[in-house]
Amino acid sequence: MKALNQWVPTGRRVVEDLSAVDLAVYAAVAATPTPTLDERLRQLSTAANHSKISIALACGLALVPGRPRRAAAVGLASVAVASATANLLGKSLARRKRPDREAGKVPQARFVPMPESASFPSGHTASAFAFAAGVASVLPWAAAPLGLLATSVGYSRVHTGVHYPGDVIAGALLGTVAGSVVAGVDEWWPGR
């Protein structure tokens, strides 16, 4: 027990340091003037609500028989796993408050509606990365464009002031793992 007690203050300091970095990056993004990006990132953040982008892409892939159709199914299953994990489990356990955009001086031109759910992890980011990982497991050529799209969705959540960078990083990790797990199950599934 004594050994554990020695680590508790160190662990607490690490969490405090990471929180300070998180806040500093959030503030730096807010303070950087990007008038040409503001509207586009607001639109992207809004379009990613309820995984609409992933669903639209999956519908397009599903129109093509064979591997693209299977990629669509794996991608959507990955989104379902990531979304459930982030929104039902992660947010209820972490209960991190959303950023205060006004205190963080996020320009109002970037605002999207502030979600009422907890901030950690980013569900938008988790779902986007899950879709990218799931689809890429079947269509490797899709990894780069879908990874770039997922990264853009994640950044848009910080840019619009509704998430801290740490929320987005956690969402990206969660989504990548969810997509990899679903892809592994797809590979293992008999008779696929």
TrEMBL record:
It is found in: Cell membrane. Its main location: membrane. Keywords: Cell membrane, Hydrolase, Membrane, Transmembrane, Transmembrane helix. It is a multi-pass membrane protein. The keyword Hydrolase applies. One of its GO terms (cellular component) is plasma membrane. Pfam families: PAP2 (PF01569). GO terms for molecular function: hydrolase activity. Gene3D superfamilies: Phosphatidic acid phosphatase type 2/haloperoxidase (1.20.144.10). Residues 73-183 form the Phosphatidic acid phosphatase type 2/haloperoxidase domain. It comes from the Bacteria. This is Putative phosphatase.
